[in-house]
Amino acid sequence: MTNHRSIETREALATHFNQLSMENLIRLCDLLNIRTSKISDPSQQHSQHILREVLLAQFEKRHSQIDRINSLPLYPDETALFEDAAVQEEMYNTDRPLALPKLNLQFLTLHDYLLRNFNLFRLESNYEIRQDIEDAVRRLGPRPASNEGSTAFSGWSRVAAPISFFKYELCLC
């Protein structure tokens, strides 16, 4: 016997489920209305590992979606800016629409509407910032300089400024 909070994590639940024999695991799954036999062959049981994973997925504490959303930055960082998985514009032609989440009002709760709106805002800001950076780099005209490992710029851009010093500090707050 223990309180709920002490067994809400996946690891804590796994220690309890790993102690169960196959017979007790099947009995527990039957009591919880979890299918233990395979669909293709009802005479065969699922493996002990599969049954444990189903129980863990069912009863572990789920992370709050609001907490996950609040931890996301509004604007992209350098890894998200040039990640092609978000919006693949290289192969895009105007024959078909982009696979972006739609913002229909049909069958939406207020939370769903705000979540889709937030995702669209992040995709749009990512795309616009990426386009601005690509435009500025194209206008600057970078080329290899005579010094090894350095870059010379032959152009000019209104939104680009040279960086003379960069210091990275790690904050362990």
- State the domain count: 2
Main sheet: strand order:
1-2
Indicate the multimeric state.
single chain
Distance between the termini: 37 Å
Can you count the beta strands? 2
Mean model confidence by pLDDT: 80
Figure out the total of helices. 6
Beta-strand residue percentage: under 5%
User: Describe the biggest sheet?
Assistant: 2 strands, antiparallel
Structural Rg: 26 Å
Low-confidence stretches: none
Helix content: 40-55%
Secondary structure layout:
Layout: H1 10-18, H2 22-31, H3 48-59, H4 65-71, H5 78-81, H6 110-140, E1 142-144, E2 151-153
Antiparallel strand pairs: 1-2
What's the short story on this structure?
The chain has 173 residues and is mainly alpha-helical. It contains 6 helices and 2 strands.
Write structural notes for this entry.
The chain has 173 residues and is mainly alpha-helical. It folds into 2 domains: 4-59; 65-153, no CATH class. Helices cover 42% and strands 3% of the residues. It has a two-stranded antiparallel sheet. The model has no long low-confidence stretch (mean pLDDT 80).
Annotation keywords:
173 residues, elongated, 2 domains, two-stranded antiparallel sheet, mainly alpha
